[in-house]
Amino acid sequence: MSEINTEPNDTESFDAQQITESAEAGEQKLPTVDVSADYEASKEFSVSDIDRTSAGAEAAAAATAPKFPIPAPTEFAKPADTSGNPDDFRSMAQDITPAGTPGEVTDDLIQKALDLGTPGS
């Protein structure tokens, strides 16, 4: 069975080791990185040539235009009821869920259950 080598220095590739040794010996110069110059140069690639002209704006508008007609929103004027009357809310709730809906527990149903008593009595 082979053993796994966990030495951090041995995980380096041969090429990387050769470059490190030649740089330490002064035979090879390591590349320098000018981050600000690279950043400025990258800005040229962030915008395509067509986007610098009016044709780019036209192409973008054509690409993002909706394919189907979009209807205009309609406004429904519903005046707010500021009376604070709970009966108004109950009548609105009755319109949404009328009385007698299956599975609904009402006071009458509870009273009938109390009158009948518990099962087995």
Can you describe this structure in just a few lines?
The protein is mainly α and about 120 residues long. Helix content is about 45%, strand content about 0%.
In whole angstroms, how far apart are the ends? 77 Å
The count of strands amounts to: 0
User: Could you describe the largest sheet, including whether it forms a barrel?
Assistant: none
Shape, per Cα inertia axes: elongated
Q: Give the proportion of residues in helices.
A: 40-55%
| Strand content range | under 5%
Category from helices, strands and their pairing: mainly alpha
Instruction: Return the average pLDDT rounded to an integer.
Output: 79
Low-confidence stretches: none
Computed CA radius of gyration, to the nearest angstrom = 39 Å
Total of DSSP H or I helical runs spanning 4+ residues: 5
Taken in chain order, the helices and strands follow as HHHHH
Q: How would the blueprint of this fold be written?
A:
Blueprint: H1 14-25, H2 35-45, H3 54-64, H4 86-96, H5 107-116
Please explain how this structure is put together.
- It contains five helices and no strands.
- 45% of the residues lie in helices and 0% in strands.
- It has helices at 14-25, 35-45, 54-64, 86-96, 107-116.
